[in-house]
């Protein structure tokens, strides 16, 4: 019954983000212009992002200072708690020690505000008046809406139409924070109108929504675009998770043997793992790191490491990443935040360098793990986080078999308060597993740009 | 932009609950047997509650020790944060200092687990195997389901049928914790079958659900009944809120001039206010305390101080309280947790003693206040909590008019993650205010037992 919580004093909250680029043996492959196929520079990104973020995107300094104002807002929910999952350990009867970092304490309920607040800050600093973004399941959109409200920035969210209709509560949260939410494809953009002309009943896709958001941001000098994962600066902002965990485990007199994180675009995984992988890269301390992705969207485990577009329409720069092809449409699993065809280039690069291993799990296993966790620890995880829970439980059960008292750390990146339809469907036996045939994967990969 | 948060070290978490009965100039009126109209004793309550809780119900000791195991579970989310609402102060341009205690950090999202965990503990101690309760909106049911999961107790929840159908996500949360949830009226009890025989389409009521839960608990020797508000022991468990606030304000070098809490059954109000009212009763320190209730269920402001039943069917003991009559059916406002015809007898007694004042607010004002709060502070409050937010904002605006820099403390008793339909309806202009005519109130009061 014991609760073991490690709360870091505020004066030990990190004052810098950790930039793993500083510790790489070789830099990741260049980002290429979609037309010329030549490496792009900071100026090419200026219409979309403020220079403060672009400089972080290309920086190789190890420590990047967190502005005071961002630190002050972080303090509303940070340092987030690190728990020893004693009750889960008992339920599993494992000799392993399981620790979890809990990011669901943020006002928007996930790790996303770590970067949303930083992005809003740098945009505000440079005089930007409004932020435009896209959202699928809504975690990112509601986090940016929250951050925008704090900084007095207008926020415009293109929300994939099927989610807009099926997840009215996520939309309501964004609207409560004062954001404007538009179902995508919309009649407000050329991209949206073109889709609607051809497919009047289109239910949208993340790719289309990105195209709409980018179009609006690029043509409005007072607006900029914001992305919730994949890019280096987004991963950078999330490293507060791992940095705090390091300090909290130090309080516990412990260091992880195994770190588990779920992966979609890669940002929460990077957040928990990069500071530890950095120590490994610097030869200071070894650790085994495991990325867990859905079997229904297996970019790391079944994708190809190749140049591809970040969006479905092929408008973004080309980045080298593990991808299933930008035309890949993942199955309708409930972990909406993990349904992305590619992986953050920095995460992909580290997999190529052998710095972590990747595995995938089926949807039903993740929900079973989530309920086991909820009944033992009291927190209902988001479907995305259930992938990390399942990964951690598997490692703990392996420890049981082997009789090894290893130390496992995982990132519980968000709560499931907005995902109860998924749990309802799971408990009613309505959810399914998904598995792609080799042919299906090959067909999607055939669409990679040459 | 500054965040000002007061986190209490775990070693300063209260180790005792505060029992205000010890500081009363006169005890509250006796609880009467519904048949004999004679005062009841502890043994009369034994079929429904474990003796550990009954002893707390009638105790007059000032400090009642919190069992170690309960403290350990509290530590998962306690001490809860106390915030200085700087950004709200700025938005209101008030000289007042506004502090809020935030209870939404509990796994179930409100203050209810403070008592659910304690109740589960004492039942478990006495060998009880299952807990039976009722729930309206679902905050209480999900908190007891959470506590039951931790202690390995079965939890059976009779959920008012209209909520069961309209709020499937609250039900899903209870089921995720492993509770069994039954729509009330059900065919499982005599009470339920009697109602269904007469009204096959009955959508239920809290009163009917209480009757069903009490019936099941009373006839099953391994089961006990659990109530989420109103009773002395429930209010007692909530005093951790105010005790922590006292210590946190001490850290801030401050003491409230005004305390604001919302009232339904009275438990969150008691939690924040009783430790401060106690200091006033002991002549140590003065404070103005304001209870804010919905205009649609105005027991304190428009009810009568009289003996009445706790349930609609008239099966419970008679208690002296501010009541609108046990036959009163409040309007369908979204603050479901405040829709109760009566008030905790201890809270009523303190109002009679002039220890606090009561006011009521309309629904639309509470949602406007909630959105103002969400956009300034980033946390979306539950509709119930919006009543406290509205009360605090009104006090802060009065300070602005008067040019007084008073210190206001209020209890933000829960988040609104499960209440987004209410916000959606509010933003769509679909919500209404409610006001009862004097005749309507008089008619409800005419049903009071003689």
Automatic annotation (TrEMBL), chains A, B:
Tryptophan synthase beta chain-like PALP domain: residues covered: 76-414
GO cellular component: cytoplasm
Cofactor: pyridoxal 5'-phosphate
EC number in record: 4.2.1.20
Catalytic reactions on record: (1S,2R)-1-C-(indol-3-yl)glycerol 3-phosphate + L-serine = D-glyceraldehyde 3-phosphate + L-tryptophan + H2O
Keyword presence, Lyase: yes
Residue positions where N6-(pyridoxal phosphate)lysine is found in the record: 112
Annotated TM spans: none
Domain of life: Bacteria
Keywords: Amino-acid biosynthesis, Aromatic amino acid biosynthesis, Lyase, Pyridoxal phosphate, Tryptophan biosynthesis
Pathway terms, separated by semicolons: Amino-acid biosynthesis; L-tryptophan biosynthesis; L-tryptophan from chorismate: step 5/5
MF annotations from Gene Ontology: L-serine hydro-lyase (adding indole, L-tryptophan-forming) activity; pyridoxal phosphate binding; tryptophan synthase activity
HAMAP family: Trp_synth_beta (MF_00133)
Summary of subunit composition and partner proteins: Tetramer of two alpha and two beta chains.
Family: Belongs to the TrpB family.
Its job: The beta subunit is responsible for the synthesis of L-tryptophan from indole and L-serine.
Protein name from the UniProt record: Tryptophan synthase beta chain
Lineage per the UniProt record: Bacteria, Bacillati, Chloroflexota, Chloroflexia, Chloroflexales
Gene name, Swiss-Prot/TrEMBL: trpB
